Amino acid sequence: MPRPALPARLRRLPAALLTLLLVPLPGCSGDKAPPSAGAPAHHTAEGFRNRDGSTIDKSQWEVWRWQLSRRDPPRPQPPLPVVAPDLQAPEPNITWIGHSTVLARLGGLAVLTDPQFSERASPVSWAGPKRVGTLPLTPAQLPHIDVVLVSHNHYDHLDEASVRALAAQPGGAPLFIVPLKLKAWFDDLGLAGLRVVELDWWQSHVERGVEFMLTPARHWSSRTPFDRQRTLWGGFAVLAPEFRLIYTGDTGYSRDFTDIRQHLAHRGSFDLALIPVGCYEPREFMRAQHVNPADAAQIHLDLGARRSVGVHWGTFEGLCDEPLDQAPRDLATARRLVGLADEAFTVLKHGETLRLQGAR
């Protein structure tokens, strides 16, 4: 006789235990300690906090209540489409690989955001958010990557196997540009000769004529229960001579994006913004750390971007509660409410390449 299926709550116990590693809890990081004399206000004695002075903490009870009461949303039917990338498209262009991993080709460089090519976004291979659908582009199929941008250290944005594969690419490892205090993680991988540049908010690095600036966001960092807020988080402005791109990184809604627009007004408008649109339910649980499509539409307006593409959706089940195909529908509603044309803020199919046109 077949064994009876475990009740749903028991099946979720591994995920609930794992979530304690991935969701911020109070009292773990000492992040409310004041910064040392002369340090920027977002620095603390042991790490970092958001520009408004906030840290994003959830109690253990909130985490357990969410995990053990949640219902798995249905998978999209039919499945979300996967298309073949166009790696011969002329610059500038982007290809959405999935979640927040985007291949951008501009300024003569191949740039990759938040490398995550693995089956799970997790510290273990047997549990945690699982990729749904076919990976449209493996590390071995990528063109030679020049620069990798890492917005923060969560497992759905920074994956060890993916980093090792990129470091071993033919022709030499790419440059990794990361927020403050994250270089030590790369050093611990033991990859000889790997170039890693750390940046604080508003700091820049120029690579072959393209400027990469770390921009602020409202989020947090952690890879274990013992390193909450120890490394910085953020987004990236990529300023090439003929094209301006911004990737916001994971974020809750904040004034950071009007400030970014003002800070870089002398450099011209952003031609393209990559803004997260998914993983926003349950709303009260996610609000401080993840925007929903309505917030994302407002960020598009705050940045003054000519065009935006939604990322951070449709790829890993188990990260949050909305169906994987919900974000595009909610984004369409958000566009109408703020009067945006459909083409002003779109989403792509997995693997889809979007040809772009700079204004300069």
From TrEMBL:
CC terms in the record's Gene Ontology section: cytoplasm
GO MF annotations in UniProt: N-acylphosphatidylethanolamine-specific phospholipase D activity; zinc ion binding
The entry's keywords: Hydrolase, Signal
InterPro entries per UniProt: Metallo-B-lactamas, NAPE-PLD, RibonucZ/Hydroxyglut_hydro
Presence of the UniProt keyword Protein transport in the record: no
SUPFAM superfamilies, per database record: Metallo-hydrolase/oxidoreductase (SSF56281)
Bias kind Basic and acidic residues: ranges: 43-53
EC number: 3.1.4.54
Cleaved signal peptide residues: 1-29
Top EC class of this enzyme: hydrolase
Protein name in the entry: MBL fold metallo-hydrolase
Domain Metallo-beta-lactamase: 111-313
Sequence segments annotated as region (Disordered): 33-53
